[in-house]
Design a protein that fits this description.
The complex is a heterodimer of chains A (122) and B (703). Chain A is built from one helix and ten strands, in the order E-E-E-E-E-H-E-E-E-E-E. Chain A has one helix spanning 62-74, and strands spanning 6-9, 15-16, 22-36, 42-57, 60-61, 78-83, 89-96, 102-103, 111-113, 115-121. In chain B, the strands form 13 sheets. Chain B has a 16-stranded mixed β-sheet that branches. Classes of the chains: A mainly beta (122), B mainly beta (703). Strand 4 of chain A pairs parallel with strand 1 (16-17) of chain B.
Chain lengths: 122, 703
């Protein structure tokens, strides 16, 4: 377990993801409804807040991308484990969104670019 | 208003709120499953075996019993510790059975016939059987005699009390046959097995407990509980939406007199994956634990609440409801169900009708009806009710109630005095007297323009009435008995092959006084006998015996009550008539209104409330689940600059809509003659009372 390690897979079988060419970002999504009352006051009811994770690969090997495709094909909840800078590990149950890919022809058809893997916390 | 914490009140009005919802669903339990049947071929005559499914898990008294002695002599001593057993149900007299005490403190449960031997074994296994409609079994539970067991958090200290040591539990599955769980060496007064949930037994129809060894020698089996309820809680991850409608007044265009209403919830659950089950609420899903319990009359208790600043959730109970039909649509990701409160059960159950009441108050008549429902309707045994003592002021000289649903019967009674009947959040049937229509206590909540999205004060001109006509229907006994029923010559009662025939006959004149003043006589042809007769005011249930295949005529003589001196009592307000024109309201005819005094009482309440155009309030706002029907709220009626006119309103309808967020619609009736002196201002602002012509107080803000 090293800082910035990210593991993904079915709960209990998470596998380490390739860090090569990867940019990782995470954001909060607030699920809520806002409205203004009769006085004009803005009020908000928060349903919940969830995490969104993004793994952007400028370049990724075909084998690594196939692993993502296989996980997507499972059509089930996945578990992602993220090792934080203080070496603690956070675990989230996520759904893998469908993703696009662009073949990098100059590298002998073994690599893909423009891949953005999005994981939404359930 | 439901009592909640200050933190909860703060959370309801906070700019950013986190509303929550939860529903507790009882899928299977004694009170909703009439098919549960308990039997044993080894039952002690002192036992009350039906108690092993009643949810009471403790035997708390040291019952005196003569069986438990190695020599067959009594071990009961007059030392103050032994208690005589409560009256058992005599199995030999089912038609005249004495109701055993089912109080928690009187728990006896199943006692076996034979005592264990010196080694605590039974030479013949002692067997108890519970049968029921197919349902999932997710846990097993056996509770022994815990009266002297040493309590431990969540159970008892091992080896204390009395309990089965070696036993089997056999489950009969419609799809898998018999499944036997063998237990040896149990040493606790409570045995439970929750691991069985993983086995996924979803269509069990029978459970058999077979005990071969007891904890103590020379003791009979004593089991307090064997049946487990199947109950689950679902929270925001499962609830897609929940709407709750509570109302005390039905907006049907007529005056809200004698109201009785049934509250309703609409629940939508996500039907994708729940507790690891795919498509959980499709009724034909063979892999769903719910496949056999998605049926009517499941009990639902909804809760609404808020997450407080510390992260905890404070809940408010929103009543108790029974489900209708479940719906799961292929094209939808949700399953939905509508459920109604206990009033719906009262609407579906039939009251057989009463005999004649003489000089009886509406309070006593209503009490009779409700007690009758508790004693005779399956799912009403736990009904609790509160009747306003104001109904004791209404005495009816001659009253009767015809055969009708309990709901209609209660409606007839409350209509006779302008009372209101509804179910409270705590599942208590509340009957409020007519004075509550206008009386008001201190307001409990102020809803400001920071809280509401829209506010209306509809005129409701259809409810303006300045002349009330009430028709009295005085009943008096006829001077002489007369024939009240006679079979036609072509309509004689034909005896069946057993020579016994039951029949219900309707009197041609109703009601009939069947006891005291005038006894009802049944006359049948020679050779026939009326063996059983139950007389009501409008009909009679008879059992006639006679030669099989022959027929008899029936003639009944009794004393009918007739309406004599019917009168229309008129009350009107000339001032309102001059202003608004004549608006007449003919009060629904009700034969419980028999005197001019009673009609006057109704007019005195009705006319002041409806003689002027009303300005009731309807407000769509952020919502507070603690607000109940009948609560008084304060609302702005007019806002312009520094002038704020506020009024007091009594809540008549609440609709809560939860979909992760919470909104609420409230309708409320303007309070007349509010006791301003008891009003407490919550924000320290000063107000001046301004009287209006119709004694309708308003407050002018002086800020």
């Amino acid at each position: 377990m090293a800082v910035n390690d990210i593991k993904l897979g079915v709960s209990g079988s998470e596998a380490l993801l390739s860090a090569f060419g990867r940019k990782f970002s995470e954001s909060m999504e607030e699920i809520s409804r806002e409205d203004r009352t009769s006085s004009g006051k803005l009020v908000r009811d928060i349903i919940t807040t969830k995490k969104m994770f993004s793994l952007k690969y400028d370049m990724i090997h075909d084998d690594d991308l196939s692993d993502f495709a296989d996980l997507y094909d499972l059509q089930s909840e996945l578990s992602v484990k993220i090792t934080r800078p203080d070496t603690t590990e956070d675990t989230y149950t996520v759904l893998l969104r469908p993703f696009d890919k662009e073949r990098v022809v100059s590298l002998g058809c073994k690599y893909w670019g423009g891949v953005n893997i999005k994981l939404a916390e359930v | 208003m439901i009592s909640t914490s200050t933190a909860f009140s703060t959370a309801t009005t906070a700019t950013i709120r986190k509303p929550k919802a939860r529903v507790d669903i009882v899928w299977s339990a004694l009170e909703i499953d009439p098919a549960i049947k308990v039997s044993s071929s080894h039952v002690n005559r002192a036992a009350n075996i039906d108690q092993i499914v009643d949810g009471n898990k403790r035997i708390v008294k040291k019952w005196g019993h003569l069986k438990e002695s190695p020599t067959g002599t009594s071990v009961i001593k007059a030392d103050g510790t032994w208690i005589p057993m409560p009256m058992p149900t005599p199995p030999e007299a089912p038609d005249n059975r004495i109701t055993p005490s089912n109080l928690v403190l009187d728990q006896v449960g199943w006692w076996s016939e034979t005592a264990s031997d010196v080694s605590s074994n039974f030479s013949v296994a002692q067997v108890l059987t519970v049968e029921f409609d197919a349902r999932p079994i997710t846990s097993l539970y056996v509770s022994g005699d815990s009266h002297d067991a040493t309590p431990l958090s969540g159970g008892y200290v091992d080896g204390t009390g009395q309990y089965p040591v070696d036993f089997t539990i056999t489950l009969t599955s419609a799809s898998e046959g018999d499944i036997t769980i063998t237990v040896t060496g149990n040493d606790n007064a409570e045995y439970s097995n929750t691991a069985i949930a993983e086995e996924y037994y979803i269509d069990i129809t029978k459970m058999v407990l077979s005990i071969t060894k007891w904890s103590d020698p020379y003791c009979v089996v004593k089991i307090a509980e064997f049946y487990t309820t199947f109950e689950q809680s679902f929270d925001g991850d499962t609830i897609k939406s929940l709407s709750i409608l509570e109302e005390r007044v039905i907006g049907d265009g007529t005056l809200p007199v004698g109201n009785i209403s049934s509250n309703v919830i609409d629940l939508s659950l996500q039907n994708i994956k729940v507790n690891g089950i795919i498509d959980p609420f499709f009724p034909s899903n063979p892999n769903s634990i719910y496949q056999n319990v998605l049926i009517k009359n499941r009990k639902i208790t909804p809760y609404l609440g808020f997450e407080l600043s510390g992260g905890s959730i404070e809940w408010v109970k929103m009543g108790t409801y029974w489900t209708g039909d479940w719906k799961a649509d292929d094209n939808s990701t949700t399953a939905s169900v509508q459920a109604r409160d206990r009033m719906e059960l009262l609407r579906l159950a039939e009251y057989p009708g009463s005999d004649i009441y003489e000089d009886t108050t509406l309070y006593d008549i209503l009490e009779d009806v409700l007690d009758h429902s508790i004693a005779n309707v399956f799912n009403m045994s736990d009904l609790t009710y509160t009747i306003d003592t104001e109904l004791q002021d209404y005495t009816v000289p001659w009253a009767y109630l015809p055969k009708a649903s309990y709901f209609k019967t209660i409606k007839k009674i409350v209509e006779a005095c302008m009372a209101v009947a509804y179910m409270s959040r705590e599942d208590v049937l509340i009957i409020e007297g007519p004075s509550k229509l206008t009386e008001a206590d201190t307001y409990v909540l102020e809803i400001t323009s920071n809280d509401y999205f829209n506010r209306l004060q509809p005129q409701k001109s259809e409810e303006l009435k300045n002349r009330v006509e009430i028709t009295t229907q005085p009943l008096v006994p006829a001077s002489v008995p007369e024939v009240i029923y006679k079979t036609g010559s072509k309509n004689k009662l034909l005896m069946n092959s057993l020579g016994t025939q039951n029949t219900t006959i309707q009197y041609k004149k109703k009601p009939v006084y069947s006891s005291g003043l005038g006894t009802v006589d049944v006359v049948v042809d020679g050779g026939f006998t009326c063996t059983v007769a139950t007389f009501y005011a409008t009909h009679a249930d008879l059992t006639i015996t006679g030669p099989a295949g022959t027929s008899t005529s029936i003639e009944i003589e009794g004393t009918p009550l007739v309406i004599e001196g019917e009168e229309v009592v008129v009350s009107e307000d000339t001032s309102s008539i001059a202003t608004n024109g004549l608006q007449t309201y003919a009060y629904p005819k009700n034969d419980l209104i028999q005197s001019r005094d009673m009609a006057d009482d109704i007019s005195e309440v009705l006319l002041p409330s409806y003689k002027m155009p009303r300005k009731d309030a309807s407000v769509d706002w952020r919502g507070n689940p603690a607000l109940e029907l009948g609560d008084v709220i304060r609302l702005p009626e007019y806002i312009r600059g520094s002038t704020i006119i506020k009024g007091f309103f009594k809540v008549t309808k609440n609709k809560f809509n939860f979909d992760g967020t919470l909104k609420m619609s409230t309708e409320a009736r303007k309070v007349l003659g509010t006791p301003i002196g008891s009003m407490q201002d919550t924000d320290g602002s000063s107000y001046v009372l301004q009287d209006t012509d119709d004694a309708d107080p308003i407050l002018i803000y002086q800020g």
